[in-house]
Amino acid sequence: MDIEVRIRGLMMDPATNMPIVVLKDVGSDTVMPIWVGIFEANAIAIEIEKVAAPRPMTHDLTRNLMRHMNSQLERVVITELRDDTFFAVLWVRHDGELMTVDARPSDAIALALRSDCPIYVSEQVLETAKLNMSGPPEGPTADELRGWLEGLNDEDLGRYKM
């Protein structure tokens, strides 16, 4: 079963200075962090802030191509967590046919924001990530991170809160 999530915020990991997308289950207080690259975080932040780039960025290009090909992004699902790496799938409808496309979660999230489609996490991934929450090896312990994420407030999330 897939669980709908929303972006709770985009922030920097205070221990590693790596960007984190914080996803929150819409039906509970469960949060799940995903560490992303700086360029991917920037693409997500630009859409959160509704900043218009002078030229289309990669995710804008992808959205525009889908529109011009009469395709629609119906949802994105973070489907797997393997060796501390998340995997995602885009669910795209084209000519009445629903197809899946493999994607990095950061790209899937950036595209979902631009396409105004829901974001889901598989129940198994959410449970695994919740139980094994850990950042990069040099980061905080799972308990420290869980406590920190659960205690976030709007001020902690800075200008990227949702």
Give me the strand/helix succession.
Answer: EEEHHEEEHEHHH
Give the name of the CATH superfamily: Bifunctional nuclease domain
Shape: globular
What would the CATH topology be? Answer: Bifunctional nuclease domain
Portion in helices: 25-40%
Mean of residue pLDDT? 86
Strand count, sense and barrel status of the largest sheet are: 7 strands, mixed
Instruction: Tell me the number of helical segments per DSSP (H or I, 4 or more residues long).
Output: 6
Structural class: alpha+beta
Radius of gyration, taken over Cα atoms and rounded to an integer in Å? 16 Å
Which CATH C-level class is it? Alpha Beta
Supply the CATH architecture.
Roll
Q: How do the strands line up in the largest sheet?
A: 3-2-1-7-4-5-6
Distance between the termini: 25 Å
Oligomer: single chain
Count the strands? 7
- Beta-strand residue percentage: 25-35%
Q: How many individual domains? A: 1
Parts with pLDDT < 50 across at least 5 consecutive residues = none
Question: Helices, strands, pairings?
Answer:
Layout lengths: L1 E11 L6 E7 L5 E5 L2 H11 L9 H11 L2 E12 L2 E10 L2 E7 L1 H11 L3 E4 H9 L10 H9 L3 H4 L5
Parallel strand pairs: 4-7
Antiparallel strand pairs: 1-2, 1-7, 2-3, 4-5, 5-6
